[in-house]
Amino acid sequence: MNLVNSKTPDMITQKWQPGARVLVMTAVPVEREAVFRGLRGDQRFDILVAGVGPVAAAVNTAKALATTGYGLVVSAGIGGGFPGQAELGSLVVASEIVAADLGVETPEGFNSMDELGFGPTRIQADAGLVNLLTEALPAAGLPVKTGPVLTVSTVTGTADSAAKLAARVPGATAEAMEGYGVALAARDRGVPVLELRAISNLVGPRDRAAWRVKEALDVLEAAGSVLLEVL
Ligand SMILES: O=C(O)c1cccc(C(=O)CC[C@H]2O[C@@H](n3cnc4c(=O)[nH]cnc43)[C@H](O)[C@@H]2O)c1
Protein backbone atom coordinates (compact mmCIF):
# COMPACT_ATOMS: atom_id res chain seq x y z
CA MET A 1 0.00 0.00 0.00
CA ASN A 2 1.22 3.48 -0.86
CA LEU A 3 1.20 5.35 2.45
CA VAL A 4 1.52 8.78 0.84
CA ASN A 5 -1.69 8.28 -1.11
CA SER A 6 -3.57 6.35 1.54
CA LYS A 7 -6.32 8.43 3.12
CA THR A 8 -8.29 7.48 6.19
CA PRO A 9 -11.68 6.80 4.46
CA ASP A 10 -10.13 4.14 2.18
CA MET A 11 -8.56 2.17 5.00
CA ILE A 12 -10.23 -1.07 5.96
CA THR A 13 -9.22 -2.24 9.38
CA GLN A 14 -10.13 -5.77 10.41
CA LYS A 15 -12.40 -6.32 13.37
CA TRP A 16 -10.76 -7.84 16.46
CA GLN A 17 -11.58 -11.53 16.74
CA PRO A 18 -11.24 -12.88 20.29
CA GLY A 19 -8.53 -15.52 20.46
CA ALA A 20 -6.49 -14.11 17.56
CA ARG A 21 -2.71 -13.66 17.83
CA VAL A 22 -1.53 -10.39 19.37
CA LEU A 23 1.70 -8.52 18.68
CA VAL A 24 2.90 -6.34 21.57
CA MET A 25 5.61 -3.81 20.71
CA THR A 26 7.74 -2.34 23.49
CA ALA A 27 10.69 0.06 23.26
CA VAL A 28 13.14 -1.36 25.79
CA PRO A 29 13.81 -4.78 27.36
CA VAL A 30 12.50 -3.83 30.84
CA GLU A 31 9.12 -2.99 29.30
CA ARG A 32 9.07 -6.30 27.42
CA GLU A 33 9.88 -8.21 30.62
CA ALA A 34 7.08 -6.45 32.51
CA VAL A 35 4.49 -7.24 29.82
CA PHE A 36 5.80 -10.81 29.56
CA ARG A 37 5.32 -11.38 33.30
CA GLY A 38 1.76 -10.05 33.06
CA LEU A 39 0.93 -12.26 30.08
CA ARG A 40 2.51 -15.26 31.85
CA GLY A 41 4.15 -16.52 28.67
CA ASP A 42 0.83 -17.08 26.88
CA GLN A 43 1.64 -18.39 23.39
CA ARG A 44 -0.93 -16.21 21.65
CA PHE A 45 1.15 -13.10 22.38
CA ASP A 46 4.44 -12.14 20.76
CA ILE A 47 6.18 -9.38 22.72
CA LEU A 48 9.00 -7.63 20.88
CA VAL A 49 11.53 -4.92 21.68
CA ALA A 50 11.56 -2.38 18.83
CA GLY A 51 13.90 0.27 20.20
CA VAL A 52 13.15 3.84 21.23
CA GLY A 53 11.34 6.26 18.91
CA PRO A 54 8.72 6.15 16.18
CA VAL A 55 11.04 5.08 13.35
CA ALA A 56 12.43 2.02 15.13
CA ALA A 57 8.88 1.20 16.22
CA ALA A 58 7.46 1.43 12.70
CA VAL A 59 10.28 -0.54 11.05
CA ASN A 60 10.15 -3.37 13.55
CA THR A 61 6.36 -3.55 13.69
CA ALA A 62 6.21 -3.70 9.88
CA LYS A 63 8.82 -6.49 9.89
CA ALA A 64 6.83 -8.55 12.39
CA LEU A 65 3.56 -8.01 10.51
CA ALA A 66 5.17 -9.11 7.24
CA THR A 67 6.00 -12.56 8.59
CA THR A 68 3.11 -13.45 10.92
CA GLY A 69 -0.65 -12.90 10.87
CA TYR A 70 -1.91 -10.92 13.85
CA GLY A 71 -5.40 -9.84 14.84
CA LEU A 72 -4.22 -6.94 17.00
CA VAL A 73 -1.09 -4.83 17.56
CA VAL A 74 -0.46 -3.18 20.94
CA SER A 75 2.13 -0.45 21.60
CA ALA A 76 2.94 -0.79 25.31
CA GLY A 77 5.37 0.86 27.67
CA ILE A 78 5.96 3.63 30.13
CA GLY A 79 5.08 7.22 29.31
CA GLY A 80 4.66 10.75 30.53
CA GLY A 81 1.27 11.91 31.83
CA PHE A 82 -0.03 15.40 31.15
CA PRO A 83 -0.56 17.18 34.48
CA GLY A 84 -4.22 17.07 35.52
CA GLN A 85 -4.93 14.29 33.01
CA ALA A 86 -2.94 11.23 34.09
CA GLU A 87 -1.34 10.67 37.49
CA LEU A 88 1.97 8.96 38.20
CA GLY A 89 1.39 5.22 38.47
CA SER A 90 -1.86 5.30 36.50
CA LEU A 91 -2.50 3.71 33.15
CA VAL A 92 -3.51 5.47 29.94
CA VAL A 93 -5.33 3.70 27.12
CA ALA A 94 -5.10 5.75 23.92
CA SER A 95 -8.33 6.70 22.21
CA GLU A 96 -6.21 7.93 19.33
CA ILE A 97 -2.51 7.90 18.62
CA VAL A 98 -1.16 11.24 17.45
CA ALA A 99 2.13 12.16 15.75
CA ALA A 100 2.33 15.39 17.72
CA ASP A 101 5.52 16.86 16.29
CA LEU A 102 5.10 15.80 12.65
CA GLY A 103 4.44 19.07 10.90
CA VAL A 104 5.85 22.46 10.09
CA GLU A 105 6.59 25.38 12.34
CA THR A 106 5.48 28.78 11.02
CA PRO A 107 5.68 32.24 12.58
CA GLU A 108 1.94 31.79 13.33
CA GLY A 109 2.42 28.42 14.99
CA PHE A 110 2.52 24.69 14.24
CA ASN A 111 0.72 23.05 11.30
CA SER A 112 0.31 19.29 11.32
CA MET A 113 0.90 17.18 8.22
CA ASP A 114 -2.87 16.53 8.21
CA GLU A 115 -3.53 20.25 7.87
CA LEU A 116 -1.06 20.36 4.97
CA GLY A 117 -2.71 17.39 3.22
CA PHE A 118 0.02 14.85 4.01
CA GLY A 119 -1.82 12.98 6.75
CA PRO A 120 -2.77 11.00 8.63
CA THR A 121 -1.11 12.13 11.84
CA ARG A 122 -3.90 10.71 14.01
CA ILE A 123 -4.75 7.03 14.07
CA GLN A 124 -7.79 5.76 15.95
CA ALA A 125 -7.35 2.96 18.44
CA ASP A 126 -9.88 0.10 18.28
CA ALA A 127 -12.83 1.71 20.06
CA GLY A 128 -14.44 -1.57 21.15
CA LEU A 129 -11.25 -2.77 22.82
CA VAL A 130 -10.62 0.63 24.39
CA ASN A 131 -14.07 0.39 26.01
CA LEU A 132 -13.45 -3.17 27.13
CA LEU A 133 -10.14 -2.23 28.74
CA THR A 134 -11.36 0.95 30.39
CA GLU A 135 -13.93 -1.22 32.17
CA ALA A 136 -11.67 -4.18 32.96
CA LEU A 137 -8.59 -2.26 34.19
CA PRO A 138 -10.33 -0.40 37.06
CA ALA A 139 -12.05 -3.65 38.01
CA ALA A 140 -8.53 -5.05 38.50
CA GLY A 141 -7.63 -2.08 40.74
CA LEU A 142 -5.78 -0.09 38.09
CA PRO A 143 -6.67 3.60 37.68
CA VAL A 144 -7.12 4.27 33.99
CA LYS A 145 -7.68 7.28 31.75
CA THR A 146 -8.41 7.34 28.07
CA GLY A 147 -7.61 10.12 25.61
CA PRO A 148 -5.18 11.05 22.86
CA VAL A 149 -1.65 9.73 23.41
CA LEU A 150 1.00 11.79 21.67
CA THR A 151 4.05 10.37 19.94
CA VAL A 152 7.06 12.69 20.08
CA SER A 153 10.65 12.27 18.91
CA THR A 154 11.99 14.32 21.80
CA VAL A 155 10.85 13.84 25.40
CA THR A 156 9.20 17.10 26.47
CA GLY A 157 11.39 18.90 28.99
CA THR A 158 9.89 22.33 29.67
CA ALA A 159 6.55 23.67 30.91
CA ASP A 160 6.32 25.81 27.77
CA SER A 161 6.65 22.82 25.40
CA ALA A 162 4.15 20.83 27.50
CA ALA A 163 1.62 23.68 27.28
CA LYS A 164 2.11 23.98 23.51
CA LEU A 165 1.51 20.26 23.01
CA ALA A 166 -1.58 20.30 25.22
CA ALA A 167 -2.95 23.24 23.20
CA ARG A 168 -2.09 21.52 19.90
CA VAL A 169 -3.95 18.33 20.84
CA PRO A 170 -6.97 19.08 23.05
CA GLY A 171 -7.39 16.38 25.69
CA ALA A 172 -3.78 15.17 25.34
CA THR A 173 -3.47 12.59 28.10
CA ALA A 174 0.03 11.13 27.78
CA GLU A 175 3.12 11.24 25.61
CA ALA A 176 5.60 8.58 24.58
CA MET A 177 7.85 7.93 21.61
CA GLU A 178 6.62 4.87 19.71
CA GLY A 179 2.84 4.68 19.40
CA TYR A 180 2.45 6.40 16.05
CA GLY A 181 5.15 4.26 14.41
CA VAL A 182 3.49 1.08 15.65
CA ALA A 183 0.04 2.34 14.66
CA LEU A 184 1.06 3.38 11.15
CA ALA A 185 2.54 -0.06 10.46
CA ALA A 186 -0.61 -1.74 11.82
CA ARG A 187 -2.87 0.55 9.81
CA ASP A 188 -0.95 -0.25 6.63
CA ARG A 189 -1.85 -3.93 7.16
CA GLY A 190 -5.42 -3.23 8.25
CA VAL A 191 -4.76 -4.58 11.75
CA PRO A 192 -6.47 -2.90 14.75
CA VAL A 193 -4.20 -1.14 17.21
CA LEU A 194 -4.07 -0.15 20.89
CA GLU A 195 -1.59 1.90 22.90
CA LEU A 196 -1.14 1.41 26.65
CA ARG A 197 1.09 3.67 28.73
CA ALA A 198 1.94 3.23 32.40
CA ILE A 199 2.74 6.71 33.68
CA SER A 200 6.32 7.00 34.99
CA ASN A 201 6.62 10.80 34.97
CA LEU A 202 4.73 13.98 34.29
CA VAL A 203 5.11 15.86 31.02
CA GLY A 204 6.89 19.12 31.79
CA PRO A 205 10.17 20.44 33.21
CA ARG A 206 12.68 17.58 33.10
CA ASP A 207 13.29 16.04 36.52
CA ARG A 208 14.72 12.57 35.92
CA ALA A 209 15.00 11.94 39.69
CA ALA A 210 11.19 12.19 39.94
CA TRP A 211 10.57 9.43 37.35
CA ARG A 212 8.96 6.37 38.90
CA VAL A 213 10.05 3.76 36.36
CA LYS A 214 9.86 0.71 38.66
CA GLU A 215 6.31 1.59 39.79
CA ALA A 216 5.24 2.17 36.19
CA LEU A 217 6.70 -1.17 35.13
CA ASP A 218 4.69 -2.87 37.90
CA VAL A 219 1.54 -1.20 36.54
CA LEU A 220 2.47 -2.34 33.02
CA GLU A 221 2.80 -5.91 34.30
CA ALA A 222 -0.63 -5.69 35.94
CA ALA A 223 -2.09 -4.33 32.71
CA GLY A 224 -0.60 -7.33 30.89
CA SER A 225 -2.60 -9.65 33.17
CA VAL A 226 -5.78 -7.77 32.26
CA LEU A 227 -4.98 -8.08 28.54
CA LEU A 228 -4.64 -11.81 29.02
CA GLU A 229 -8.11 -11.95 30.60
CA VAL A 230 -9.99 -9.81 28.12
CA LEU A 231 -8.45 -10.58 24.72
O1 LIG B 1 16.04 5.18 32.96
C1 LIG B 1 15.34 4.19 32.88
O2 LIG B 1 15.31 3.27 33.72
C2 LIG B 1 14.44 4.09 31.70
C3 LIG B 1 13.70 2.94 31.50
C4 LIG B 1 12.89 2.89 30.40
C5 LIG B 1 12.85 3.99 29.50
C6 LIG B 1 13.61 5.11 29.75
C7 LIG B 1 13.68 6.30 28.86
O3 LIG B 1 14.01 7.38 29.26
C8 LIG B 1 13.39 6.23 27.41
C9 LIG B 1 12.13 6.93 27.04
C10 LIG B 1 11.13 5.81 26.81
O4 LIG B 1 10.12 5.90 27.73
C11 LIG B 1 8.95 6.43 27.15
N1 LIG B 1 8.68 7.66 27.89
C12 LIG B 1 8.55 7.71 29.22
N2 LIG B 1 8.25 8.93 29.62
C13 LIG B 1 8.19 9.70 28.53
C14 LIG B 1 7.89 11.09 28.33
O5 LIG B 1 7.60 11.87 29.25
N3 LIG B 1 7.92 11.53 27.05
C15 LIG B 1 8.20 10.72 26.02
N4 LIG B 1 8.51 9.41 26.18
C16 LIG B 1 8.47 8.89 27.42
C17 LIG B 1 9.22 6.56 25.65
O6 LIG B 1 8.21 5.92 24.93
C18 LIG B 1 10.58 5.91 25.44
O7 LIG B 1 10.44 4.61 24.96
C19 LIG B 1 14.40 5.17 30.86
Explain the overall architecture.
There is one protein chain. The chain is α/β, with parallel strands linked by helices. It has a single domain (19-230), classed as Rossmann fold (3-Layer(aba) Sandwich). The protein has 6 helices and 10 strands, in the order βαβαβββββαβαβαβα. The chain has helices spanning 29-39, 54-67, 127-139, 159-168, 179-189, 213-230; strands spanning 22-26, 45-49, 72-81, 91-99, 103-106, 109-112, 122-124, 144-151, 174-176, 193-202. The strands form 2 sheets. A 5-stranded mixed β-barrel has the order 3-9-8-4-10, surrounded by 4 helices. It has a two-stranded antiparallel ribbon with strand order 5-6. α1 (29-39) runs parallel beside α6 (213-230), α2 (54-67) runs parallel beside α5 and α3 crosses α6 (213-230). The longest helix is centred in the C-terminal third of the chain and has 18 residues, at 213-230. The structure holds the ligand O=C(O)c1cccc(C(=O)CC[C@H]2O[C@@H](n3cnc4c(=O)[nH]cnc43)[C@H](O)[C@@H]2O)c1. The ligand O=C(O)c1cccc(C(=O)CC[C@H]2O[C@@H](n3cnc4c(=O)[nH]cnc43)[C@H](O)[C@@H]2O)c1 binds at residues 27-28, 30, 52, 77-80, 152, 155-156, 175-178, 200-201, 203, 213.
Compact overview of the structure:
By secondary structure, the chain is α/β, with parallel strands linked by helices. It is built from six helices and ten strands, in the order βαβαβββββαβαβαβα. It has helices at 29-39, 54-67, 127-139, 159-168, 179-189, 213-230; strands at residues 22-26, 45-49, 72-81, 91-99, 103-106, 109-112, 122-124, 144-151, 174-176, 193-202.
